[in-house]
Design a protein that fits this description.
Blueprint (H helix, E strand, L loop, with lengths): L2 H51 L4 H4 L5 H12 L4 H36 L11 H13 L2 H12 L3 H24 L5 H8 L4 H35 L7 H10 L5 H31 L4
Helix pairs in contact: 3-11, 4-5, 4-7, 4-9, 4-11, 5-7, 6-7, 7-9, 8-9, 9-11, 10-11
Length: 292
């Protein structure tokens, strides 16, 4: 084929490529529009169904949405002289909530560490069981903490132990997946070197893998600790102890004890902000080598 023929066919080829590309763009936009329309339709229908099944309609209750916080703030302001004493009164409950979160984070991180190493390709002790361990972590993540806590409260009775176990199991599933993703990027040269010297699987993981991934593992664990403080407070509403139980009691009495509810809110908010800032500082130091 001559150079003239090639030159004449080049614009046709470019036009064909452009037409094909534009057709793909139009098809992608159409699929995106259909997906968005379906999502909006499902959201609207779900909201209408939920609104119809409510004890009171959402739109009927919308004007009263600020009534409760207004009552709490006004009563707390009227009794502001009692606030320091209330903060001291409920501080031990806050410590109990933090203890629940710390213990559950530690237990969950240890279990998640073992599960992550057993479910990471190239590191697993039993490669054929990788999918089994991964599905087990999926189950731990899929079941909400409050469901596990309710079951354990029915079996063990109320208190901090059911909350600790429930949060620890969910933490193991969540951290196990994140730990596994980090471990997959570990350099295997040190593991192979240890294997050539006859090191056991535990020794290869302890000496060859953990030193590489420890900063990321600790960073994820601190992040999970923040989440678990909120989770332990929420589980207190179902009888799992801690400051959540005290908040439920204060709110259930209604007017007259709203000042106590306000004090508990302040303690919980302050604790979450404090540990969020502390955790963020050390997470940045671990992963980036400097303080935020």
């Amino acid at each position: 084929m001559t150079d003239a023929a090639l030159t004449g066919s080049t614009p046709l080829l470019i036009d064909r490529i452009q037409d094909s590309y534009m057709a793909q763009v139009r098809r992608r936009r159409m699929y995106g529009g259909l997906t968005l329309a379906l999502f909006v339709l499902l959201m609207a229908s779900g909201f209408m169904i939920a609104d119809d099944r409510n004890a009171g309609g959402f739109w009927d209750g919308w004007p009263q949405i600020l009534d409760f916080p207004t009552d709490v703030v006004s009563e707390a302001w009227e009794k502001r002289a009692d606030l320091p004493g209330l903060l001291a009164k409920y501080f031990p409950a806050l410590i109990e909530t933090i203890n629940i979160a710390a213990a559950s984070t530690l237990l969950g991180a240890l279990l998640g560490l073992v599960l992550s190493l057993l479910s990471t390709r190239g590191l697993a002790k039993w490669p054929r069981l990788i999918s089994v361990f991964r599905r087990f972590m999926d189950v731990l993540r899929a079941v909400p903490e409050i469901v596990v806590a309710l079951v354990l409260i029915f079996i063990l009775g109320g208190g901090p132990v059911p909350a600790m176990i429930a949060i620890a199991l969910h933490t193991a599933g969540a951290l196990g997946k994140m730990f596994s993703e980090v471990a997959e990027n570990a350099d295997l040269k040190s593991v192979e070197g240890l294997s050539s010297t006859g090191a056991t699987w535990t020794q290869r993981m302890w000496l060859g893998v953990l030193p590489q991934v420890a900063p990321n593992f600790l960073s994820y664990t601190l992040l999970r600790f923040e989440i678990n403080i909120r989770a332990s407070a929420i589980l207190g509403f179902v009888g799992a102890g801690g400051i959540g139980s005290e908040l439920r009691h204060a709110m259930s009495w209604g007017p007259g004890r709203f000042d106590e509810a306000a004090a508990i809110f302040l303690l919980l908010f302050g604790a979450i902000v404090f540990f969020d800032q502390l955790s963020s500082r050390y997470r940045n130091k671990l992963t980036k080598g400097h303080q935020a």
